[in-house]
Specification:
Layout (H helix, E strand, L loop, with lengths): L21 E2 L5 E5 L9 E2 L6 E2 L4 E4 L8 E2 L4 E10 L5 E9 L17 H11 L11 H5 L9 E5 L9 H8 L1 H14 L5 E6 L3 H10 L6 E6 L8 H9 L14 E5 H13 L5 E7 L7 E6 L4 H7 L9 E4 L6 E2 L13 E5 L1 H4 L12 H5 L6 H10 L2 H6 L10 H5 L6 H30 L1
Parallel strand pairs: 1-14, 9-10, 9-12, 10-11, 13-17
Antiparallel strand pairs: 2-8, 3-5, 4-7, 5-6, 7-8, 13-14, 15-16, 15-17
Amino acid sequence: MRMKLHGVHAPSRKNTAELTALRLPVPKTVEIPMSMHIGAPAIPVVKPGEAVKVGQLIGQAGGYVSAPIYASVSGTVKKIGQTVTSGGKLMETVVIESDGKQEPLEGIHPPKLDTMQDFLDAVRASGLVGLGGAGFPTVVKLTVKNLEQVKAIIINGAECEPYITSDTRTMLDRSLEVMEGARLVQKFLQVKRVIFAIEDNKPFCVRTYRKLVEDELGMEVCALPSLYPQGGEKVLIYNTMGQIVPEGKLPLDVGAIVLNCTTLANIAHYCQTGMPLVEKCITVDGSAVRKPKNVIVPIGMKIGDVFEACGGFREEPKKVLYGGPMMGIAVPDLEQPILKNTNAILAMTAADAALPTASACIRCGKCIAHCPLNLMPCELETAYNTGNMERLAALKANLCMECGCCSYGCPAHRPLVQTNKLAKAKLAAWKQAQKSMLDGGKAAVK
């Protein structure tokens, strides 16, 4: 008998689920960061004053774990600048002034796909990263030395965060590309099982894909209960394959590769057209937004311009987020750009953005009951506050996926997930210090 993973029943608020994504007018300028992915930043290969076209390389991958970056508008490179990201880091950017023509680069054509290496080269050249939010370079995830190790490809269409419906619209509006992407991955990774994982609060999506996979060998649809964080990678693997990803291990270690459905659609799009990732479907919503909708925008478009194109604000927002309310990141200003892995931007009124006042922990255990990975957030908080690094390690702080279920379910409104983030960073620094001391001791002995 399999154990049941926990979570929370957060209000879904899928206000835009029925709204087909609309393409917004081209903005006057875009500011494209050279790091929209995990790994080394891309290196600019254009100069101020240079004319560029849509799909032209402007940032060369800075290493194996990196991704190339392309012009999302045609026009002129205005400057190579820097901006402070939502994470507080200084990042190099390429600012392009649009000519409004959206002329594609000459010579773009579909890649040759005869071998596995051809396919991997195509995925690398596409500039694709995990588009569900993680931003891990897709080619690295698909580079598998032993293909027999892969038991299943899981297509993540859960989209469990409140408000966000951009993946749902991709699955419906671009279903043919999603299916072609699934066939390509199935073919080149020689995998016998492809699982479309979709939450059951999207019944039309479930029915659509069950119909689409009827004649596909080795493809299936798994309708999952609507429970946050159903779309978490480890949660998804357990609920579809029954496999637990051990601490310090990767999904591939249990035979799984998880791909976001929008990533899959863009793999197919590049293989069919040769046009790399230059635009993104995002959900624009939140209590401060006048006209919530799904839109298709060029990467690098300022979020302020996106909100303005969606009718502006019904009242001044107190907080603006990249992503959803559970795992989203607050942005410092409306000058921040749309990134490759941006799936939504939310603007909240003061009433919805106000943080509740925290009170003393009442030891109710609800944070433990809600944690999908069976951690003990209240104990992690105590260990962090007392600086007990051994205890943090024993409590498996590094396993925390930062989903926020603990904070959401806490009646005392403790900032548990925020503390967990700090604890993980503090534990990592402590482990590094311990390693340095050990290495220093060995060197002294020699």
